[in-house]
Amino acid sequence: MAESGIVFLGPPGAGKGTQAEIIAACLHVPHISTGEILREAIREGTPLGHKAQTYVDQGHLVPNELILELVAERLHHSDAQKGWILDGFPRNVSQASFLDDLLEKRHHPPHQVVNLEVPDKVLIDRLLLRGRKDDNEEVIRNRLVVYYEQTSPLIDYYTKKGNLHSVNGDRTPTEVTLALKEVLMC
Ligand code: ADP
To answer: 115 pairs with which residues across the strands?
Structure first.
């Protein structure tokens, strides 16, 4: 599996970033977080950052035109040719089919998807504790609505494709890591 890509799916606060970082190190592949890329662009005040800021601050998805080419380019880097972990992308069905088309065009092997499952109540508590700029109650509520409306349909999408592995994310980080390592064989 180390030869191919892995998508980390799950609601905000599910632990995707933490776990993706560990699994990426274990498989020696880059951890590509679209949220992190956008936050960095905002910090640095780049044109992308300026365009993305309001969406990110309010908990809405940035428009596809800001994110699709960025991901295509990032997956083209030499460090991503032996595999990669995407965290925070795809976040809606059109992003998922863009990724499928891209990988097919580039003759990449099929990718795996892991879905971290965590109940809402736990997510909200975790996000409030984390306290990032977009982790206040109103924005969290928006991000959960966006997740259920736009991102959660991907569970069905990937179940139909047959590459989805669901993992219970409502456990200690160490337990989740162990479960992921078993599923992803690293
Ligand atoms: P979380 O998963 O905790 O919500 P992320 O770091 O993944 O945090 O994302 C933070 C914000 O960045 C999102 O709320 C959204 O505004 C923006 N974002 C990240 N990835 C995408 C994407 N693939 N498409 C659109 N917007 C995105």
So the answer is: 9, 166
pLDDT in tens, 110-164: 899 999 999 999 999 999 998 888 999 999 999 999 999 999 999 999 999 999 9
How many angstroms does the Cα of residue 34 sit away from the middle of ligand 1?
6
- Ligand 1 contacts (CB < 6 A) are 12-13, 34-35, 38, 55-56, 59-62, 67, 88-89, 91, 95, 143
Give Cα separations from 172 to 23, 35, 62, 120, 132 (angstroms). 16, 23, 31, 16, 21
Mutate to test the pocket of ligand 1, among 61, 116, 148 (most ligand atoms within 8 A of CB): 61
- What does the angle CA 4 – CA 153 – CA 126 come to, to the nearest 5 degrees? 85
Burial of 95 by CB count in 10 Å (0-12 exposed, 13-18 middle, 19+ buried)? Answer: buried
Is the overall model pTM greater than 0.90, yes or no?
yes
